[in-house]
Amino acid sequence: MTFSISSIPEIRFGDGVFSGLASAAASFDGVKRAVLVIDGFLAQSGFAEKVRRELEGAGIETAVFSDFSGEPKLAHLHAALEIAKGAQLVIGIGGGSALDIAKIVACSAASGEDPMHYALAANPLPKNPLKKIMIPTTAGTGSETSATNIFAGPEGKKLWIWGAETKADLVLLDPALTTTLPANLTAWCGMDAFIHAFEAATNRNAHRGAQFYAHEALRLITRSLETAVKEPSNLDARGDVLLGSCFAGIAIDNCGTAIAHNVSHALAGLAPVHHGLATALGFEATLAWLVEEDTADLNAAAKACGLENAAALPAFVSDLMDRCGIVRALPAAFAPFTAADLANEMRAPENHPMRRSTIREISDADIDQFAAIVMALPKGL
Q1: Is residue 160 over pLDDT 90?
Q2: Contacts of 181 (CB under 8 A, 6+ apart)
Q3: For residues 223-241, b (16+ Cβ closer than 10 Å) or e, as one string?
Q4: What percent of the chain has pLDDT over 70?
Q5: Neighbours of 67 (CB within 10 A)
Q6: Do 100 and 70 form a contact (C-beta atoms < 8 A)?
Q7: pLDDT at residue 79 in the model
Q8: Are 304 and 310 in contact (CB under 8 A)?
Q9: How far apart are CA 20 and CA 85, in angstroms?
Q10: Domain presence at residue 350
Q11: Is the pLDDT of residue 1 over 80?
């Protein structure tokens, strides 16, 4: 087998590593102005103002953008780009939405092009984007190390912008920043990271280079996610899940995802739903079907979870979701939709890469079956 591993940003990990942000920002040549993209609740808590003061103390004028919620939308990107005018550095602090906005802004602000110019790889990204520092406060998306960035286009459909130019220049992983994440979000995000690692390690694009990171991510998350959910101040558990999420991000950056993400992206095309929850529901609905393929990669991933073989995975995953308190239900906004609606979204062109990369061939009948399982879940979460 031959493979290549895509570039990995500089990563600094540890309790308190966030305190070095201002000095790290000042170390980039020519940085006089920064834009801070930060989750709204962090901004409202006074955290954004604290960061802004520290950056300005280091000689970096800083503007703050926090006016977004849920997954990124084109309007959020446009608003952030207005604030980013004249900046040389973009700092993303928060969950995957904050990081994806920050990375897209760093490219579009450098070129002056609208984000839609780059959607679905329509045009090459600028070769000299703004400098980027990414600081995740959730442990799920792995966006801090990924070249993939998701947003909703003008019609509300999920689009992606992909390219090495969107990658961070520096990643700060501080477990202490994740301790205030509520239990349900810790569980949803943690399952998202678990599934990233699993799908990257087992799909048609899988290779040994990415599996090195994916299998370690599976080990870290398997041993610590339940503790992180139930003991939110446990920094060892939080650190394991945060590092696992980062390693899973490296894995999907190299090998992509598969059927569970086809389901979750399709769900998001119908109505708002947390990505981690949607992915976990899609994973549980498709896993028993998937492991019937019984490949060496599926069995190796199972062993990384401490299991004997791939056949043990469906029961293990369902038990892990139970122990983490994940309720199998969709938001009430899904009540008007049918299994046929979800199946149509799963077949949409933008979701085809995840269908194609799945190790087992997916028929239209399979899609109908998966959509029926997911849409039979209770609505009203």
Answers
A1: no
A2: 137, 138, 139, 189, 232
A3: ebbbebbeebebbebbbbb
A4: 100
A5: 12
A6: no
A7: 97
A8: no
A9: 25
A10: yes
A11: no
**C-alpha angle 344/95/320, rounded to 5°?**
70
- If asked whether residues 121 and 81 sit together in one domain, one would say yes
Please state, in angstroms and rounded to a whole number, the distance separating the CA atoms of residues 221 and 194: 6
Range of the domain at 366: 184-375
Q: What span, in angstroms and rounded, lies between the C-alpha atoms of 347 and 340?
A: 11
pLDDT digits (tens, 9 = 90+) for 91-131: 999 999 999 999 999 999 999 999 999 998 999 999 999 99
Residue 157 has pLDDT above 90, yes or no: no
Contact between 275 and 27 (Cβ < 8 Å):
no
Which has the closest alpha carbon to 87: 28, 142, 43, 146? Answer: 28
Domain end marker among 177, 212, 229: 177
Any idea how long the chain is? 381
Whether residue 317 sits in one domain with residue 252: yes
Residues 14 and 126 in one domain: yes
Other Cβ atoms within 10 Å of 124 Cβ, number: 11
Report if residue 124 sits inside a domain: yes
Q: Which run of H or of E encompasses 11? A: strand 10-13
| pLDDT tens for each residue of 18-72 | 999 999 999 999 999 999 999 998 999 999 999 999 999 999 999 999 999 888 9
Q: Is 62 helix (H, G, I), strand (E, B) or coil?
A: strand
CB 58 within 8 A of CB 26: yes
Q: Determine the Cα–Cα distance for residues 74 and 185; give it in Å rounded to an integer.
A: 24
Q: Is residue 381 part of a domain?
A: no
Q: Into how many domains does the chain fold? A: 2
Work out whether the CA dihedral 365, 366, 371, 377 comes out positive or negative. positive
User: What is the Cα–Cα distance from 354 to 158, expressed in whole angstroms?
Assistant: 13
Cα–Cα distance, 360 to 259 (Å, whole number): 9
Domain of residue 115, CATH code? 3.40.50.1970
Choose the final residue of a domain: 118, 147, 177.
177
